[in-house]
Design brief:
Shape: globular
CATH topology of one domain: Rossmann fold
Number of helices: 10
Strand content: 15-25%
Strand order of the largest sheet: 1-11-10-4-9-8-7
Organism: Marinobacter pelagius
Order of helices and strands: EEEEHEEHEHHHHEHEHEEHH
CATH superfamily of one domain: P-loop containing nucleotide triphosphate hydrolases
Largest sheet: 7 strands, mixed
Radius of gyration: 24 Å
Distance between the termini: 57 Å
Structural class: alpha/beta
Oligomer: single chain
InterPro entries: AAA+_ATPase, ABC_transporter-like_ATP-bd, ABC_transporter-like_CS, P-loop_NTPase, PstB-like
Bound molecules: adenosine-5'-triphosphate, magnesium ion
Number of strands: 11
Protein name: Phosphate ABC transporter ATP-binding protein, PhoT family
CATH class of one domain: Alpha Beta
Helix content: 25-40%
GO biological process, one term: phosphate ion transmembrane transport
GO molecular function: ATP binding; ATP hydrolysis activity; phosphate transmembrane transporter activity
Length: 295
């Protein structure tokens, strides 16, 4: 006969000292203090001064009381999980959100001490000063040459054809595209590969010599060689321009940026020197993200 002891001692019958209390984990959201960003969100030499910024899509608050300075000639990277508001916040900087009907921006946003949202402000002039490169390349259905020459023509930056030629060549060179397209400048831009189109859009953005370039995941469609060229360009541009780059690549943020800003559920949780963010983050949410525990 089988004499196996099948008696089960239920937890309730166990002596109390054997019960290990279960530690309840705090939900991550509870540790975010609204409007409070740890680290170094401010600068003595601000190009952008952004205070108490909130962005609503209808009733939904996508950006929750964010205050940040973006310094002159700095490269700042915006990182954080999908949907945390990086693109929304970036688009406030040149009023790209204006084109979304249900979107409302509140707070104080200044570029060189001028109110970005002043109703009297010329938005075309603002966007010439604050250029943008989108995640998906969006070349105009025009020739390669005309794509790059478009902005300089509108803003009257070249008096002679040879000046315009120089701007087009220089911009294409900086974007790492010149060698590939110099013999077919009249070809239509929409016939280029995705990666070439993206570099063309970068050339188009820098052709008007903006003071700031906003880049929303500019390398997500690029191969490693084109990505390296864009990163070189960022380093070169940062000598005279201010650059804000949204990226999902932490390696990219670490390679190109001076400071890194970590966003979470519409909050700006931490801003610090990039090196510090990736080696010794101050906030536990930043640490969880960079160590891959979520996002
Ligand atoms: N045009 C829009 N209309 C309504 N809600 C929007 C719109 N654009 C963004 N949102 C909402 O705002 C929040 C922030 O979105 P946003 O695109 O800024 O995030 P993100 O950090 O850039 O994400 P991802 O890394 O996926 O690009 C999300 O909840 C999103 O659903
Ligand atoms: Mg985005």
């Amino acid at each position: 006969m089988n004499t196996l002891n099948t008696t089960v001692t239920s937890e309730a019958e166990m002596p109390e000292e054997n019960v290990v209390p279960v530690q309840e984990e705090k939900p991550a959201e509870t540790v975010i203090e609204e409007g409070k960003t740890v680290g170094r969100p401010f600068s003595d030499d601000a190009k952008f001064k952004l205070r108490n910024v909130e962005v609503f899509y209808g009733q939904d608050r996508a950006i929750k009381n964010i205050s940040l300075d973006i310094a002159r000639n700095e490269v700042i990277a915006f990182i954080g999980p999908s949907g945390c508001g990086k693109s929304t916040f970036l688009r406030c900087l040149n009023r790209m959100n204006d084109s979304i009907d249900i979107c409302r921006v509140k707070g104080s946003l200044h570029l060189d001490d001028q109110d970005i949202y002043d109703p009297k402000r010329d938005v075309v002039e603002l966007r010439a000063r604050v250029g943008m490169v989108f995640q998906k390349p969006n070349p105009f259905p025009k020739s390669i040459y005309d794509n790059v020459a478009y902005g300089p023509r509108i803003h009257g930056l070249a008096n002679r054809k040879s000046d315009l030629d120089d701007i087009v060549e220089n911009s294409l060179r900086k974007a790492g595209l010149w060698e590939e397209v110099k013999d077919r400048l009249d070809a239509t831009a929409t016939g280029m590969s995705g990666g070439q189109q993206q570099r063309l859009c970068i050339a188009r953005a820098i052709a008007v010599s903006p003071e700031v370039v906003l880049m929303d995941e500019p390398c997500s469609a690029l191969d490693p060689i084109a990505t390296a060229k864009v990163e070189e360009l960022i380093a070169e541009l940062s000598e005279s321009y201010t650059i804000v780059i949204v990226t999902h690549s932490m390696q990219q943020a670490a390679r190109v940026s001076h400071r890194t800003a970590y966003f979470h559920l519409g909050h700006l949780v931490e801003v610090n020197e990039t090196n510090k963010v990736f080696t010794s983050p101050e906030h536990e949410l930043t640490e969880s993200y960079i160590t891959g525990r979520f996002g």
